[in-house]
Amino acid sequence: MAHQVVLVRPWDQQMSGSGCCGRLGGLGNELGNEEDFAPQRCDMESMGVVYRALREALSPDVEMTVVDPRNTAWLVPFLLRKGWARGLRGRTLLREVGRGTSTTAVVVDGRTVAWGQLPGSGIIVDLVLAELYGPNCSKGL
Amino acid sequence: MPAIVIAAAVASAFFLGYRFYSSYLARKVYALDPAFVTPAHSMEDGVDYVPTNKHVLFGHHFTSVAGAAPIVGPAIGVFWGWGPALAWVVIGTIFAAGVHDFGSLVVSVRHRAQNIGSLASTVINRRSRTLFLVLIFFLLTLVNAVFAVVIGNLFVANPAAVLPILLEIPLAIFIGQYIYRTKSSALLPSIVGVLLLYATIPLGQQFPIEVTGIADALGVDQVRNVWVVLLFVYTFFAARIPVWVLLQPRDYINSHQLFIALGVIFAGLAVGMNTLVAPAVNDVPEGSPSFFPFLFITIACGAISGFHSLVSSGTTSKQLDKETDARYVGYMGAVGEGSLAVGAILACTAGVVASRADWDALYPDFSTASGGAVGNFVNGVASFANNIGIPFDWAVIFAAIVVISFAATTMDTGVRLQRYVIQEIGVITGIKPLARNLTLATTIAVVGPLAMALLPGGGEAGYTFGVLWQLFGTTNQLTAGLALAVIAVWVTQQGRNPLAVLVPLVFLLAMTTWALVLNLRNFIQQEQWVLAPLDLVIFVIALWLIVEAALALRKAFAARRDGSVDDVTPDGATEDSSAVHDANVARDVGPDSAERRT
Questions:
Q1: Is the pLDDT of residue B590 over 80?
Q2: Which residues contact B167 (CB under 8 A, 6 or more apart)?
């Protein structure tokens, strides 16, 4: 089975359930202004550095996905399914879901390896490689 | 007939539409190419351009487009009976909205993920960009006016909902601060936030808030109008505070509410086995608007919504992994919104009352039907909720809270967006104070819809609401018309048959102009001197759109006859316009991002 790395971070746009006419976007979007989502833009840029570092470090068959934490329709079932498959139950499973739905998080094959205030991209790459190929692996290729 | 049978029949129709018609569109009209390198790959940067799993992308897309508008239109539209309303939602979704949402996504992907405003400028001509801005200006003015009336009506009818809605504001701000400062999980606080919101319902029932006293003191006949003014005062300030303080944290609460409401509607429907009590075709009283053409502008969102093209082309197109995924994401986005509209139709025809006589009392004439439409939806959803064991009194406030939350967020956003549009118009026209003065732009953004909500019809709820909603539907359909024109021109340029796009385009333009002419005549006869000029302006915009679309299509057909088809290069740029695209991309995203991508 192919490995999957999920990067959780907000998009600079509204996803409100308030409808298509009640929606703001950020940079380069017809709906809104780039300043609207400045904090989210920072998270996007920071995670972009992590994304590019992981793209370089990982083999192409590792699937990388970027998800907004508000996309609960996909993210929560995904984390529950993966956690359940790993044998997690009850509070442990809920804790794992909580970590994976943080504003910023890195999830490797359903396990959240970093969340909240993320460390530098180099450390995250090491964490992901260790999770995928074991602690002694320095390069996933 | 049990409503669940209708729901199952519609689900089957949507399935067939997706299975066969979207497949036809994918093969013959849009000619999707699995090998095409999408912008998510050709410009991949891990920030804006990210190849994304189609199921993840559908989650983003659907949460961005679904909301209050597909509730309001169908709730009014059942005035002509559930048959015409349902038929338009189903046929519109399959043959118009699906074509529009799917096509907008494909054309954007084929033009380096440009948004629809830039696409109109690139594919049709530069004037189309101005046309687009003008359309959005009127659309936002009307949507803000309409939703203020929606909320005002619901506050008057359900004073117990006021306190929970007021408490939602500090709740959202607290959640926002918590998430922003700790960067922790948003899921748990937002779920707690939703539960707290619903937990305040008994408090709201204990302390209902009414403004009848204020209305009496001011000599205002319609109590609703006091709420309308208060709402615009609120949005004046709300539109100026940073998005992350209130608007974004409310996203989390609202996104949970969307799925809770959908679950309640369809679970209640399945458990309660409510039967349709409304007539399939209503024998409407003489003098009522006829369903041709008014049904087709009354139900816009849910059958086809022009704003979807902005969502498809704004963000979704930057994340499309494979071009073939556009079929699932774009077409199913339209189907998702159509399903919401079907839920609204069933709530207002099977949930709201138990007998035909009771239904007739709710929909005796167009004015009463329009004024009470959202209230009917709220009561219908409450009835479904009651089927699954939720006390009716509580369920009514729950349903009102859901609708008001969505409508209030739409207003917050709409006023803010309108401010940007006004500032941009200030830049284009060279009126510097309009472009630079935030207070002036926000004031205009608030005063326009406030006047619309208060002045026409002398404050009579049903008339005001029905007419404003129709004008909103008209501008929304015209925005869809502009997007369909862009798609039709592009399909023609590619040497393929554009009939699947032209049919909904011509139909929408015919219905909207027909309705505008009829309304203009009525407004002049009734001496409605606010609505008549507004209608006339929108009519001129419609004619402008028809001329632009016809000219662009004639040019595209002529180019095709001459053999100068606009080929697409493997990296997604059209050969003859890649320089324009580069310039647009650089302009849209700014120098930093452009540099990063290179």
A1: no
A2: B196, B197, B200
